[in-house]
Design brief:
- The chain is of the alpha/beta class.
- It has helices at about 10-25, 30-45, 50-60, 65-85, 135-145, 155-175, 190-195, 210-220, 240-260, 280-295, 305-320, 345-350, 375-380, 395-400, 400-410; strands spanning about 95, 110-115, 120, 145-150, 180-185, 200-205, 230, 240, 275, 300, 325-330, 335-340, 340-345, 365-370, 385-390, 410-415, 455-460, 485.
- It has a seven-stranded mixed beta sheet, with helices on both faces. Strands 5-4-3-6-7 form a five-stranded parallel beta sheet, with helices on both faces. It has a four-stranded mixed beta sheet with strand order 17-2-1-18, with no helix packed on it.
- Helix 9 (about 240-260) links the parallel strand 8 (about 240) and strand 9 (about 275).
- Helix 3 packs across helix 4, helix 7 (about 190-195) runs parallel beside helix 8 and helix 9 packs parallel to helix 10 (about 280-295).
- The protein starts with 7 loop residues before the first helix and ends with a strand.
- The relative contact order is 0.14.
- The mean pLDDT is about 95.
């Protein structure tokens, strides 16, 4: 079924309704917000078979992969709901007046308040977890913000089904109707209109660098700029230290072959660059990884646009100076299929060619052979911001490579030791973000309940009577949230 692009009038109506709902929803207690979010999760659970079936038709992803993603989406909603109600994200702080000090100290109390209507762009590679009822939407609802979703055209019908679940939850829990709107649009002007609408107060996005940067620029070019929280691209570099590689070349190769080709490489945490020091152990690792890649069957990618981009960017990378093709998976047998690809380059040419630093979204990875530890350090220092970085190292190698460790820390939001970057655990200690250009603001996460803070801002109340303060700042603490009082 073809879904019509939203008209300017429909966009304005959605934003006006969201603003009207905001005046009500922002005052709704945390417990009620949490009940609403749990109701969405319950609706998704009830309709899970229909949702997974529809997503299979549109995304070409397998049943188990989609079922797991839907389960994750439901968990995000329920866990963020629990965090919303618990209230520590409000970061409530109280410093009571001290009239006896010189000069007298006023009563100052600080909390977080919601920003206002949030526009969320559905992600192409995650029809559930990063789309209509995904993490951005859940965080915005928890913060007290209405949400206007622009469905991704690659899975528009799935998005429509999810939106119906949200509308049902709104009705069942008595939330203001304008708290949620669902719009379609393939034309870039629709995204621009949503970002630049005067009532939009923040944007959530997961996708390409080009897309995220454009939304960021639109957000900053407004008369009143707004935050655009865009998770964009990442090559998620992996650094192989010599002792670890010498001891476990085969095991590491097997682990990384699975990570590179997982879901046809269509994860923002796919390991796109692997850096080691030239020698027999790295050559052995290449041999093992080559064998695994060559035995990988091609598979249909999410949609034609992603497949086309993968083929073009892969060919561009392979045509660069000094890049050699090590292995490809079995020959492509169908339209829009991704063929696993492993390439190699030496450290000197990698340092001289910024094109090789760029993401090739799909089942592709580049092995960089450095001449020595010094060149490996130079490679680390040359890299842009990343969502993740990984170091494969024996324990005693960590102390031996302190400067390398610090350099890698400078470029990533999640630093992994002896593992793979694919797989992002949903928990409070998770950080799914990173320095630009991985994201537009490395201080915030797109996964975990800390993501709620993206859609709220601090406000301090000075010398207000207790009865007029927000509930979380009142002396009696009716919401029962954790607070820092007098520094304790």
């Amino acid at each position: 079924m073809q879904h019509k692009d939203a008209t300017p009038k429909e966009i304005d109506s959605a934003m006006q309704a969201a603003e009207k709902a905001f005046s009500i929803y922002k005052k709704i207690p945390l417990r009620k917000r949490a009940e609403f979010m749990k109701a969405i999760a319950a609706e998704l659970e009830e309709k899970s078979a229909e949702l997974v079936h529809q997503a299979m038709q549109e995304s070409h992803l397998g049943k188990e992969r989609l079922k797991g993603e839907l389960d994750r989406t439901i968990f995000q909603l329920t866990s963020y709901a629990a965090a919303c109600e618990e209230g520590s994200w409000l970061d409530a702080r109280i410093n009571k007046a001290d009239p006896n000090s010189q000069p007298p100290k006023p009563d100052i109390r600080k909390t977080l308040v919601p920003l206002g209507p949030v526009v969320v762009f559905g992600a192409s590679n995650f029809p559930f977890a990063y789309s209509t009822a995904g993490g951005d939407t859940a965080c915005a609802f928890a913060a007290g913000c209405p949400v206007v979703v622009k469905a991704h055209p690659a899975h528009a019908a799935t998005s429509e089904l999810v939106s119906k679940a949200i509308f049902t939850a709104i009705e069942k829990t008595g939330m203001p109707p304008g708290i949620f709107a669902h719009l379609h649009g393939e034309d870039f002007d629709i995204g621009k209109a949503l970002v630049q609408h005067e009532l939009t107060k923040a944007v959530g996005f997961t996708g390409s660098f080009a897309g995220g940067k454009q939304l960021f620029d639109w957000g900053n070019s407004r008369k009143v700029p707004i935050p655009v929280f865009a998770e964009m691209g990442s090559v998620n570099p992996v650094f192989l230290l010599p002792k670890k590689l010498a001891a476990e070349a085969k095991e590491i190769a097997e682990m990384y072959a699975a990570s590179i080709t997982l879901s046809v490489g269509q994860f923002c945490t796919n390991p796109g660059i692997i850096i080691g020091i030239a020698g027999k152990d790295l050559e052995l690792f290449k041999k093992y990884l080559q064998a695994k890649i060559e035995n990988t069957k091609p598979a249909t990618m999410l949609h034609p646009g992603i497949a086309k981009s993968f083929i073009e960017k892969r060919e561009k990378a392979l045509n660069e100076k000094s890049v050699s093709l090590i292995a490809t998976g079995e020959n492509e047998t169908g339209e829009n299929q991704g063929q696993a690809t492993l390439a190699a380059v030496d450290g000197k040419n990698f340092l001289e060619n910024n094109t090789l630093h760029q993401e090739v979204f799909g089942p592709y990875s580049l092995i960089v052979s450095c001449a020595d530890k010094k060149e490996m350090l130079a490679v680390a220092k040359s890299m842009e911001g990343q969502l993740t970085s990984t170091i494969m190292a024996a324990d005693d190698e960590i102390a031996e490579h302190e400067e390398l460790i610090e350099s890698i820390k400078n470029i990533c939001g999640r630093f992994i030791m002896n593992g793979v970057p694919t797989g992002v655990e949903v928990c409070l200690s998770q950080h799914h973000g990173g320095p630009y250009p991985a994201t537009t603001d490395s201080r915030f996460t797109a996964v975990g309940a800390d993501g709620i803070k993206r859609f709220a801002r601090p406000i301090a109340f000075q010398n207000w009577k207790n009865e007029f303060l927000p509930d979380e700042l009142k002396d009696e603490n009716p919401w029962g949230v954790g607070r820092r009082v007098g520094g304790v």
